[in-house]
Amino acid sequence: MSAAGPLVLIVEDDPQLRRFLRTALGAQDYRVIEAETVREALIAATTHNPELILLDIGLPDGDGIDLTRRIREWSRVPVIVISARGREDDKVAALDAGADDYLTKPFGVNELLARIRVSLRHAAASSSTDAPVVESGPLRLDFARREVRIAGVEVRLTPLEYRLLALLAQNAGKVLTHRQILKEVWGPGAVSETHYLRVFMAQLRRKIEPDPARPRLLLTEPGVGYRMRES
Amino acid sequence: MTISGAQPGTAALAAYAWSTLLVLGITASALLGRNVFHLPDVVMLYLLAILVASFRFGRGPAIFASALCVASYDFFFVPPFHTFSVEHTRHMLTFAMMFGLGLGVSGLTARLRRQERDARVREGHTATLYALSKELLGVPDRGRAGDIAARHAAAAFGGAAAVLLRGEDGELSVPEPGEAGAHLEPEDLAVARWALHHGRPVGAGTGILSDAPVTCLPLDAGVAPLGVLVLLRPSAEVIDVARRGFLEVFARQVAFAIERLRLGEEARAATQRARSEQMRSSLLSAVSHDLRTPLATITGAGTALRDERERLGPGQREELIDTICTEAERMERLVGNILDMVRIESGGMALRRDWVPLEEVLGSALVRLDAQLQGREVRTNLTEGLPLVPIDPVLFEQLFINLIDNAVKYTPAGTPLAIQARLSDDILEIEVADRGPGIPGGQEERIFEKFQRGAQTGSGGVGLGLPICRGIVEAHGGTILAANREGGGAVFRIRLPLREPPPTTRPAEPEEVRL
């Protein structure tokens, strides 16, 4: 393990899954520290100051959602939660508690590394200025000129559609919950009006997706929210 | 309905007053007509008064009237006049007969009256029991039966009533304070528990704990008491001996109804148990076969890579690694399906309905199936302006994934799929159609049964995909059917009634702003 890359804290009670994560991350030059319980995780997070935390939601001495909330009291370190299929509520709760993204067990190594890269990039970006232009596939969004182009052709959007697209683009690659999007675009009073969001998302897809029936840019995370595909 | 005991003071007093007035009236008219009437006529007039008093005013006033008649007759009409002394002993005989007649007739009419009253009461009881049994017949569960019985009991016996049922633990289950029905104090409950455990009526009017403000009857249908009928502050006559019999018949009828419902519930539970038992055993066999197969491959390939590394060429290693990944994915699908099925079967599938455009759910299913759909044309045709539909988006995505995956498995590579949805008369109709070999005749229903696999096995399914689809659709209150298409292929049709209109979304912004 060369001691060069970012430091990742793995919070996972299953030894085999921990071994896989350690090996996969080590091969990519990440430095790894491990914790098996909420208590150990809190100690490791405060003493080692990791640059990213991979956190299994189900831990023997407590739940990861609560741990996320406690970490968020004093740190902006990216947290990626690991959860099982069918536990969408847990994922939403963890994301709303401040987690940056999630992985659904079982997951492949590509997905793991992609999520980590996106989270680290966003953590770095939020401390500097935001990118002036976001590109993903045929989409090009120029924030300074408030201009949206698909394959070079300009697309006209309503202000709400633009705000929705801009929010997803700023967080490209990262999942955003319905609640987070509604709060940002419609305001805190609308956080439970998910049907507004769904209707506008459908409109937006019809304008920017080459095939709105099979969206390639604005992906649905069923039961959780939306994610813009990374370039 | 009954005079005795109801308001003893005033009513009886009035009867005595009327009797007195009657005798005075007769006496006055006899005195007025004394020049016309002979003595026997006067006697007849007094007998008439006694008869009237007997029929109208009951036994006591009638006897009182008889005595009054004898006295008046003696005083005014039997010489020497205006004294109570009598000259001839034959007059004494008249007195005796007059009084005796009064006694006899009033006794007779009183008995008639009582019989009539009893008949009316019995008629009332029969009507009460009839109404009770009629209403209890259509009741779905024991709780409702108890409520109905309590309502009828309150109407029939006065005051308030409650039916407490024996719970699983053998104790009375006590309604929450906020619930409908009579409010019971802890002391009342203690009396009710006594009745349950001893299987005997207890409380006011029963001879045991007679000071209690309640009367409790065990609901006994022959085995063990199923609960207790509690009467709070019943009207006084309920407790009298004549009505105790009726009260017991009432309680028994309620007990029989509750016992019938209990047996029904038990039978249903037994069927459910048997079904889940069957489910468990099929699940076990599915798990043991369908999970072990990929597991065997993974174990084999994994150990080969670990133990035979040197003897394997790079191509062979590649092959084994691919096998492991493919088989692991297959296992993941199986486990997911089995878990979904168990959730549906156990009734633990809580719907998280939301107003969703169908397009979004179908879109994410198609994206998830990208790999399987390579090289196939998928035509989607969702009617423009389809409203938002109230569905669980996660489950509906699973539904589309299973249906499309099923179509992919059982149709030749490269054949097209078509998915369409439209709204007709508040029913959302969704069709997933293929151009494969279609469904073998007569199998249209069977394919929705668990562990039924199509002819092309080895495609990695356990035969749970379609049963899960049906479970999801039915949980939403819809139906799913399979049929063969005109021109070849199979079609799966989902019909989902939309009961409430979709919520209004904020009006889309009118101006298209150039950004």
Please describe what this structure looks like.
The complex is a heterodimer of chains A (231) and B (515). Chain A is of the alpha/beta class and 231 residues long. Chain A is 42% helix and 24% strand. In chain A, strands 2-1-3-6-7 form a 5-stranded parallel beta sheet, sandwiched between helices. In chain A, a hairpin with a 2-residue loop joins β10 and β11 (153-154). Chain A is globular, with a radius of gyration of 18 Å. The model of chain A has no long low-confidence stretch (mean pLDDT 90). In chain B, the strands form 3 sheets. In chain B, strands 2-1-5-4-3 form a 5-stranded antiparallel beta sheet, with helices on both faces. Chain B has a 5-stranded mixed beta sheet with strand order 7-9-10-12-11. Chain B has helices at 8-32, 39-57, 59-77, 89-137, 142-157, 186-198, 241-307, 314-345, 358-368, 393-410, 465-475, and strands at residues 160-166, 172-173, 202-203, 214-219, 227-232, 354-356, 378-382, 389-391, 417-424, 427-434, 479-484, 490-497. In chain B, α4 (89-137) runs antiparallel to α5 (142-157) and α9 packs across α10. In chain B, β1 and β2 form a beta hairpin. The A-B interface holds A 85-86, 88, 106, 146-148, 156-160, 162, 194-196, 198-199, 201-203, 205, 212-216, 219-220, 222-223 and B 328, 332, 336, 339-340, 343, 352, 354-357, 359-364, 366-367, 380, 382, 388, 393-394, 397, 502-503, 505-506, 508-509, 511-515.
Any chance you could write out the topology, listing elements then pairs?
The complex is a heterodimer of chains A (231) and B (515).
Chain A: E1 7-11, H1 15-27, E2 31-35, H2 38-48, E3 52-56, E4 58-59, E5 62-63, H3 64-72, E6 79-84, H4 88-96, E7 101-105, H5 109-127, E8 133-136, E9 139-142, E10 147-150, E11 153-154, H6 159-170, E12 175-177, H7 178-185, H8 194-208, E13 218-221, E14 225-228
Parallel strand pairs in A: 1-2, 1-3, 3-6, 6-7
Antiparallel strand pairs in A: 4-5, 8-9, 9-10, 10-11, 12-14, 13-14
Helix pairs in contact in A: 3-4, 6-8
Chain B: H1 8-32, H2 39-57, H3 59-77, H4 89-137, H5 142-157, E1 160-166, E2 172-173, H6 186-198, E3 202-203, E4 214-219, E5 227-232, H7 241-307, H8 314-345, E6 354-356, H9 358-368, E7 378-382, E8 389-391, H10 393-410, E9 417-424, E10 427-434, H11 465-475, E11 479-484, E12 490-497
Parallel strand pairs in B: 7-9
Antiparallel strand pairs in B: 1-2, 1-5, 3-4, 4-5, 6-8, 9-10, 10-12, 11-12
